[in-house]
Amino acid sequence: MSQAEQIKFPTGVCFIPSLGIIKSDNATQELNQSERCILNYLLAHSHRPSTKQALIKAGWPEREVTEASLFQVIRSLRIKLQESKKGEIIETVPRLGYQICHFEVLALGELPHDKKTNKSSRTKRISYSFLAVICVFVIIIVLFKYESSPTLNLQDFHSRQISLDTNEILVVGKDDDVLDDLTSKMNALYQSYNALHSPRILENHRLYIYKNEDIYSIAWCELDDDSTCIKGTDLSYSMRLKDWPTFENYILSNEGELKDTAKIQTDFARQPAAKVFLNYIDDSKIQSKVIHYFISNEPNNAFKYSSISYIANKNSKLHHVLSIKAANYQAIPTDDIPNVMAYIKITPEMFHWAYQPNKTNSLNQSSLALENEKHEQVIYDGRQVAFNHLLYHHNHLSLIFCEKSGLYWVHATNEQDVLFKTAID
């Protein structure tokens, strides 16, 4: 492309190839080397789709990288090009790659070379400089208040699909060593289970397992002939790393399932739009948590929600209120992250403790349920925008991945609910 050209996109954003920058009415952003090379390649080959392999070669000519690196660059470019909806500029071509079709090539405006600057133009520059300082100041305030990062948690993680006979398993972790560990643990548990139980019970299941620095989290459901989760067969468990043997013994003993019909102590009469059931295996007295979501639709596939969390100890099925939260969320579709259907952008508004833990009770201090709630309090109090990920969705049932707390199922009250449907259609 000519050094004197700029590329204007339908969003009003302009790309100046010679400078490697993207300009809009209110911002100028410099692209990194990979972003610059990939965007140039897409523009140069706009007459046909560019394959993922070709884009990887263009973006990292002397390095070997995975498709995850390409997904990250495409996602970053979508944000910088200010796509209001996915595919507005960078179109995804299923099973092939990406393409940019809509843009126009314009001449760069002539830069002033006259060193004689009159008072009027000097005054304008001073005014613009003042406005720029004010804008930077406002941006700093907003960032300080929201600490919103556009980084999506799962981009730093790897996933792998494996099969054990008729069972499908997705393992998720930060690197291949973690995936190898999870694969080994699932193989060992599966072989031990089959050795103890005959005929084989664990068949036609979809399982998800995740590990971070603190916990294992595992979720599963039984599949019907259409590979859809059968209602009522979904379960999830979270545990500290040291408690994996306890979980293994629990599964191998075939003692039953922790999830049951929670007896909620509340005066609220309104039926929640969705429910979450969480099970914990730890040394505390708190073994389960239930969350009720009250949701209202907003424009542009966004939602407002308030939620009430309840906990129960091992000696009682009666659940007591733990906390009350309010936030906005938006489900945004993606095929740029392997095995993820959409990411869920959560903008916190309010957090309130209803539960007063007993500080002298060491068992409460070891509770994963309370630890996760304290982590959420920090996010909500700091107004930090967070991202979760949608791994499965069908009618009434969705599986969510959260980097901190792991995996959990969301049950819509209405079996044809559209909590995340707009993000995957």
From TrEMBL:
<dbReference type="InterPro" id="IPR036388">
    <property type="entry name" value="WH-like_DNA-bd_sf"/>
</dbReference>
<protein>
    <recommendedName>
        <fullName>OmpR/PhoB-type domain-containing protein</fullName>
    </recommendedName>
</protein>
<dbReference type="Pfam" id="PF00486">
    <property type="entry name" value="Trans_reg_C"/>
</dbReference>
<dbReference type="InterPro" id="IPR016032">
    <property type="entry name" value="Sig_transdc_resp-reg_C-effctor"/>
</dbReference>
<dbReference type="GO" id="GO:0003677">
    <property type="term" value="F:DNA binding"/>
</dbReference>
<dbReference type="GO" id="GO:0006355">
    <property type="term" value="P:regulation of DNA-templated transcription"/>
</dbReference>
<feature type="DNA-binding region" description="OmpR/PhoB-type">
    <location>
        <begin position="4"/>
        <end position="102"/>
    </location>
</feature>
<dbReference type="InterPro" id="IPR001867">
    <property type="entry name" value="OmpR/PhoB-type_DNA-bd"/>
</dbReference>
<keyword id="KW-0238">DNA-binding</keyword>
<keyword id="KW-0472">Membrane</keyword>
<keyword id="KW-0812">Transmembrane</keyword>
<keyword id="KW-1133">Transmembrane helix</keyword>
<feature type="domain" description="OmpR/PhoB-type">
    <location>
        <begin position="4"/>
        <end position="102"/>
    </location>
</feature>
<dbReference type="GO" id="GO:0000160">
    <property type="term" value="P:phosphorelay signal transduction system"/>
</dbReference>
<feature type="transmembrane region" description="Helical">
    <location>
        <begin position="126"/>
        <end position="146"/>
    </location>
</feature>
